[in-house]
Each structure stands twice: as C-alpha cells, then as structure tokens.
Amino acid sequence: MKLLHRLALLISVMMLIVLSYYLLFPQDQGVVRLKISTTTSLYATGLLDVIAKAFSREYPNVRLEFIAVGSGAALKIAEMGDACVVLIHEPYLERQYLMKGVISGGRVFAYNYFVVVGPSKDPANISSVDNVLEVFRRVYMAGELGRAYFVSRGDNSGTHLRELMIWELLGVDPSSTSWYRSCGCGMSDALLIANEYNAYTLSDLGTYLKFK
After folding, report:
1. Under the phi-then-psi rule, with left for phi > 0, alpha for psi from -120 to 50, and beta for the rest, what region is 209?
2. Are 186 and 155 a contacting pair, CB within 8 Å?
3. Is 7 in contact with 109 (CB distance < 8 Å)?
4. Is the pLDDT assigned to residue 96 strictly greater than 90?
5. What is the DSSP letter of 176?
6. Are 84 and 105 contacting, i.e. CB atoms less than 8 angstroms apart?
7. Which one-letter DSSP state was computed for residue 102?
8. Torsion of CA 203, 206, 44, 169, to 10 degrees
9. What class, spelled out in words, does domain 2-100 have in CATH?
10. Is the pTM of this model over 0.85?
11. What sign has the CA pseudo-torsion 23, 25, 28, 34?
C-alpha cells in the first residue's frame, strides 16, 4: 500500500507539471509529450512502464517519454531544458542541483538497495560477509591475486558514484589494474558483462532481480 501511495503521489506531481505546461503553452487537441529523464537502473526494473500505463488511463492526452541514462546525465538533460521531470537515485547529486536551482520540489517515492553480485564459485569469498567495506576489500585482494574480476559501470551514474565512494573509503584505487573493467554502460549491460567474465559488480537490487 505504501508503494501505491507513493506512485499516486508521483503521478499527482506529474499532473501539476502537465497542467502548468498547458497554462504556459496552450495545446490543440493533440497529445502532450512529457519528457522524463531517469536512470537505466530504474527504467530496467519495469516500474516506470507500470506508472506509464496507469498514467495513460487517467490522462490519455499525455504521453510519458522516458530518457534512460545515468543519474549525472539525467540531471544534465534537465539542466539543458530537455526534460520536465527527473527520476534518479543519487541524493548527493540531487542536493547539488537543488542548491543550484536547476530542479525543485524533490520527493522520495520509492527506494532500492545496492547488492554486490558475482560468480557462483565466489573466488573472493564474500557470500558470508555482511559488511560492504569488507566485501570490497576481499574483492580487491582476490583481484590482486588474479582470482577475480570486477565490472564497473563507469558512467557517472548513482551506482557508479556509490562504488567509487566505497573504494575511496577503503583507501584503494583499482581503476588502473587489469582485473577492474569499466564498461561505461547501464546496469543491465554491466550485469551481462559481469556474467560473461565471471566477475563481481555492484548492482541495484531491482535490476538484478529482473535479470537474475
């Protein structure tokens, strides 16, 4: 019920934007396009498709158009005026753009979890560890010993920035090592590459469950 309430809140916010658009730019009888920049992780979960279907039933003259990129790119798109709504999951970047006045009225409508996923043989022996710093330390050590690989999104997304923060907290920088692979890609592609190379990666839980 909480999720449904949050989805209703999100749809209400979208409608306020649409109504403002109507007042500023009167439309004919055609369809209004509402562009929304979001993250590949959120889009890959399928949640936005559910929202779009519910929204179109309520407001058939409005078409939602999602632009799925990394969190940083999603905010840049809004800054350039190419999106009316931003749906991302990187609070640090959000606060920066709120302070700059690029975006306003931020609302939390859902949450997700980060998970470290990897090969079933678990060469870094992380399956029994519940401390993320220890997990990354073991992956780093296994990589240095030639036992493991790690795939980074490398796309300035919220997931990528969180990964970099963890390495920084550990005091290590694996970016120049042979076992660290930066793909510059979205979450679904990063998971596919990690699976292909029997590598570890940091993923949001929603996308992982969809592609598991």
Report:
1. alpha
2. yes
3. yes
4. no
5. G
6. no
7. S
8. -30
9. alpha beta
10. no
11. negative
Cα–Cα–Cα angle for 86, 167, 117, rounded to 5 degrees: 75
Supply the pLDDT for residue 4: 45
At residue 139, what is the residue type? V
> How far apart are alpha carbons 165 and 159 in whole angstroms?
10
Going from N- to C-terminal start, the domains of the chain cover: 2-100, 114-211
State CA 204 to chain mean position distance.
7
For residues 138 and 204, what is the distance between their CA atoms, to the nearest angstrom? 20
**pLDDT tens profile 56-68:** 888 888 888 999 9
User: For 115, which DSSP code?
Assistant: E
In sequence order, the 6+-apart residues with CB closer than 8 A to the CB of 77 are: 37, 67, 69, 83, 86
The CATH class, in words, for 114-211 is alpha beta
Q: Which of 93-107, 154-168, 172-186 has the lowest mean pLDDT?
A: 93-107
Identical fold between 2-100 and 114-211:
yes
Nearest to 72 by CA among 157, 147, 142: 157
Task: Read off the tokens for 152.
Answer: 């980074």
